[in-house]
Amino acid sequence: MWLKAKAPGSPGYLELKRLVQELGLHTVCESAVCPNIGECWGYGTATFMILGDVCTRSCGFCAIATGRPQGLDLEEPERVAQAIRRLGLRHAVVTSVNRDELEDGGAFIFAETIRKVRAHCPGTSIEVLIPDFQGEWDALKAVMDAGPDILNHNVETVPRLYRLMRPQAKYERSLELLCRAKGMRPEAPTKSGIMVGAGETWEEVLRTMADIAGTGCDILTVGQYLQPSPAHAPVLRYYPPEEFVRLKALGLEMGFRHVESGPLVRSSYHAAGQVDRASE
Questions:
Q1: Are 135 and 105 a contacting pair, CB within 8 Å?
Q2: Rounded to two decimals, what is the model's pTM?
Q3: Which of 51, 184, 233, 241 registers the highest number of CB atoms within 10 A of its CB?
Q4: How confident is the model at residue 44 (pLDDT cuts 50, 70, 90)?
Q5: 278 or 31, which is more confident?
Q6: Domain extents for the chain?
Q7: Are 118 and 147 in contact (CB under 8 A)?
Q8: Residues 79 and 138 sit within 8 Å (Cβ to Cβ)
Q9: Is the distance from CB of 189 to CB of 225 less than 8 angstroms?
Q10: Is the backbone of residue 249 left (phi > 0), alpha (psi -120 to 50) or beta?
């Protein structure tokens, strides 16, 4: 079986877990039950999740808790920057839950986190994996004006499956976000990702990849969907490794500068290496 992940428990994993708890932070690695947590944390890398750990949306694929978030932690950006400094990261990834109850969707906290990391870790490149901000483009501009090195927003699945997998999102809105981000800072790479195995056809995958490429997106990730619990959408097909290899080749033909494609690939998996290869 090709779906094998490194079990957590290494010294690096335990040290990062201690640091996250000490600073009162959240990671998408834990909240989304990522299968790569043992490998990534063992190497001292993590995707920090800001704006709390409760999401206002109820996506069919995601294990993050859904509910009504309480308050806003204005000191969180400083603590994230301190964690990145103490880890000595060359490349940092910051994502968030959806905060649809906030007027700007949490864009200010994203921007402030970028600024704090710049101040404390000037040599660290910053990738932000953002929500769609419900199409509030001033919120997107606030994030882009803060100067992230990479803007990442996942399309996640084919449009036909949005009602199942992303019921509060809109396929066209996600594509527009990628277009607008590229227009705001053409020099900054944009990135997106999709999951396969939830019931889409091969032709739908290729059309979705082509739509993403049409936004000018530079980097694409493609990974196998894994059901986080019986309450989530079921896995309908496991793609073999050779099909991921084929999707990578087809993605490069579509114009992506880099495609990370494999069964255990997730949006932030080997993120620093993705940046390097896209720049070659």
A1: no
A2: 0.87
A3: 51
A4: very low
A5: 278
A6: 11-279
A7: yes
A8: no
A9: no
A10: alpha
* Dist CA 120 CA 78 (whole Å): 9
**pLDDT tens-digit profile of 53-81?**
899 999 999 988 899 998 899 999 999 99
The alpha carbon dihedral of 169, 275, 27, 143 has a sign of negative
At 55, is the secondary structure helix, strand, or coil?
Answer: strand
> Is the separation of the CB atoms in 30 and 203 below 8 Å?
no
Tokens of 165: 């997998």
Whether the pLDDT of residue 147 is over 50: the answer is yes
* Contact yes or no for 64/99 (Cβ under 8 A): no
- Give the contacts of 151 (CB within 8 A, at least 6 positions apart): 127, 128, 130, 143, 144, 181, 185, 188, 189, 190, 191
Percent of the chain with pLDDT over 90: 68
Per-residue HEC secondary structure of 79-115 comes to: HHHHHHHHHCCCEEEEEECCCCCCCCCCHHHHHHHHH
The topology under which CATH files domain 11-279 is TIM Barrel (3.20.20)
Structure tokens at 192: 């997106």
Q: Determine contact, residues 107/143, Cβ cutoff 8 Å.
A: yes
Tokens 């999401």: give the residue.
55
Q: How confident is the model at residue 275 (pLDDT cuts 50, 70, 90)?
A: low
pLDDT value at position 139?
A: 98
Residue type, 195: M
pLDDT of residue 154: 97
Torsion of CA 191, 141, 100, 227, to 10 degrees: 0
